[in-house]
Amino acid sequence: MNLFVKKPIAQIISSSDSGEHRLKRTLSATSLIALGIGAIIGAGLFSLTGIAAAENAGPAVVLSFVVAAIGCAFAGMCYSELAAMIPVAGSAYTYTYATMGEFVAWIIGWDLVLEYAVAASVVAVSWSRYVGSFLSDFGIHLPARLAACPWDVITLADGTQAHGMINIPAMVIICIVSILLMLGIKESTTVNSVIVVVKLAVVLTFISVGIHYIKRENYVPFIPPNTGHFGEFGWSGIMRAAAVIFFAYIGFDTVSTAAQEARNPKKDIPIGIIGSLIICTILYLAFSFVLTGMVNYKAMKGDAAPVATAINLTPYPWLQMMVKFGIISGFTSVILVLLLGQSRVFYSMSRDGLLPQLFSEIHPQWKTPWRSNLLFMAFISVFAGFFPISKLGHMTSIGTLLAFVIVCVGVLILRYTQPDVPRPYRVPCVPVFPILGILVCLSMMSSLDSETWIRLVVWLVIGLFIYFNYSRTHSKLNKGSL
After folding, report:
1. How many structural domains is the chain composed of?
2. For residue 470, is it within any domain?
3. Using one digit for the tens of pLDDT, what is the confidence trace for 372-385?
4. Which of 161, 237, 175, 158 is nearest to 379 (CA)?
5. What is the CATH number of the domain that holds 323?
6. pLDDT higher at 156 or 459
7. Please, where are the H alpha helices in 41-101?
8. The whole model's pTM is what?
9. Are 255 and 273 in contact (CB under 8 A)?
10. 3-state SS class at 216
11. Dihedral of CA 36/432/245/397: which sign?
């Protein structure tokens, strides 16, 4: 068995649109941009901006967004080139199979499974909390112990403290979104497009209203001096904050997982990736600038809802209700796109024989890999309902950054090993831009804490056990049956 056997690009493309495993092509460039925005704008923007400002960068969190955006821009261009060359489901997993071989492809595929699962679970728990708060504004109070996991300590209505039992709302939203994804990609993206319009309106309203309540003194000092510890303000704090808020950019890579369902993937996938990145970066810079201008970064320490704090400084109570609704909408679309991406990665790995065949079975009517959706509905809903997973936000970032590094390396390898393959989109300034993408992403990875690295290693060890005990012997490419 050859650990580093590569899957020929021509074979990848020819097999993607044939046989019973064919997916339905319905997505336009606009749908793909909406898909990217739907995944990108969510928990990272509304939750992590204040945390990163208070603990790491101060008002210079705006610069952290710039650093993170630069890393994403380089990675986004590399994704666009590979997605246009290899317009099939699977994203970084598929690209790695063609450039670095099966073993590395398995590692990145397994890494992506963790990234999407953890991220969807974290967002589902956040969705549950905001829904509870939103409903309480209308006098509807969910049972506190049924909206928190057994590990969470909550305060009951009578003031006593108790442990939660199960986070039912978080489980419910995972199930609803999973069922929607099973029913069809067109229906799912239509719902996503409506949600995207809602949350864009909320973000733009916050920026346009909040800009009138900025206090210039909140920007002084713009880069607070370092405390003597790496990552606590100063330039190291800007880099640490960039790694933390990188979670806010996660999602554009999910556009590439839908390549096999795009009408004209060679043209529309690059538009979807780069277009959604540009729109979200502009909004992020404006949002973080207004937020840190309205609320002093020191006042955001320990504040779980800095956006709500900023809104309270305005004379518009309706704005807080609107923002809550926008946040809930944003979380919903993020969950949708993450679950979409995860099922498509599993679908691709199953088609290659690295996972059981049932995960690549397409429903005869819905034309979706419904068994993969069903598996993750059960798996992720249990995580969201019973485990305190909020600390795994960093885990999502490190998994994504690893995928970005490998994609950038893949572009370099293919440019020199297969220079004559048609490239509808080409990364400019090769090898400079891919190398810069690698360096920026690696620098952000290095600034994350040791516990995050340990979790990644443990997950990869589990993946290696599965690979050598199942995937390696069932690989269609190694058996010559692909």
Report:
1. 1
2. no
3. 888 888 888 888 88
4. 175
5. 1.20.1740.10
6. 459
7. 43, 49-52, 61-85, 92-99
8. 0.77
9. yes
10. helix
11. positive
